[in-house]
Design goal:
Order of helices and strands: HEHHEEHEEEEEEE
Number of strands: 10
Structural class: alpha+beta
Distance between the termini: 83 Å
CATH superfamily of the largest domain: RNA 2'-phosphotransferase, Tpt1/KptA family, N-terminal domain
CATH topology of the largest domain: Arc Repressor Mutant, subunit A
Shape: elongated
Number of helices: 4
Number of domains: 2
Radius of gyration: 27 Å
Strand content: 15-25%
């Protein structure tokens, strides 16, 4: 039986998230696009597998509270909460990203093992232009409080909650899972698709838990009749089963010698 991952300290999880999104996506078994964006559903599964379990709300809170010494957010979560990226410090090739020097390990510098690799020191070589470190800390704390407050009470309620849904495709007669079935989900203007694995499961789709009562699912597979269904909109993470019926066999034309009349000679 697989052991359930236990929660890690927030700072450890934030460091690991920075490592994944800036330097080593494979550490969580994910990939990022040319602009550094990663799919949230895949990231949450990868974090859990790596021993850093997080829920979607936990990730959102981590992003909101992860602020650099300069008072800027380390990560950006897209408004629909489907994608996430690091804001700077990449050692992997990212379009439009701030260039950084890397050591042979592929990290920005050896500090990455003990703290966040934040942006390079400015012309003051790390010294505050405001003088007292106490003043700087107070300003950063106030800015962080404002950002978190804005996120929680102004911005966040505008985003509909998102849940993750997997589809299981089965044979309607034998109830056995069907692999390599093509599944397409249409949720308003959003279209997602995937093929089922050997167990008949798709990946976890991101579904808004509010809006129309249902969303559309289309499934097709070789030797089966394609089907389109309206599925009740989920309110929590889970699995939905869709069953396909086999296509009727195509009969080849027969030569009925009794039906053919001979022409008189």
């Amino acid at each position: 039986m697989r052991e359930r991952a236990t929660a890690r300290p927030r700072e450890d999880t934030s460091r690991f998230l920075a490592r994944v999104l800036r330097h080593e996506p494979s550490a969580a078994g994910i990939s990022v696009d040319p602009k550094g964006w990663a799919e949230v559903a895949s990231l949450l599964k990868g974090l859990n597998a790596a021993g850093y379990p997080l829920t979607l709300d936990g990730l959102e809170d981590l992003v909101a509270s992860s602020i650099s010494e300069r008072g800027t957010p380390r990560f950006t979560l897209s408004p629909d909460r489907f994608r996430i990226r690091a804001n700077w410090g990449h050692s992997i090739q990212i379009e439009g990203a701030e260039a950084v020097e890397t050591n042979p390990k592929g990290f920005r510098d050896i500090r990455e093992e003990t703290q966040h690799a934040d942006e390079p020191d400015g012309p003051m070589n790390g010294k505050s232009p405001w003088g007292s470190p106490v003043v700087v800390a107070a300003v950063i704390a106030a800015a962080g409080t404002l950002i978190v407050g804005y996120w929680q009470f102004v911005y966040k309620p505008k985003n509909p909650p998102v849940v993750f849904l997997r589809l299981l495709v089965k044979d309607a007669n034998s109830h056995l899972p069907l692999s390599n079935s093509h599944v397409e989900i249409i949720d308003g203007s959003q279209r997602q698709e995937d093929n089922t694995d050997q167990g008949g499961f798709t990946r976890a789709f991101s579904i808004r838990s509010s809006g129309q009562p249902t969303f559309q699912v289309s499934v097709d597979a070789t030797k089966y009749e394609p089907t389109t269904e309206n599925i009740d909109r989920p309110t929590s993470d889970g699995t939905q089963t869709v069953e396909l019926r086999r296509s009727p066999p195509i009969e080849s034309p027969r030569n009925d010698e009794h039906a053919v009349k001979s022409k008189p000679r």
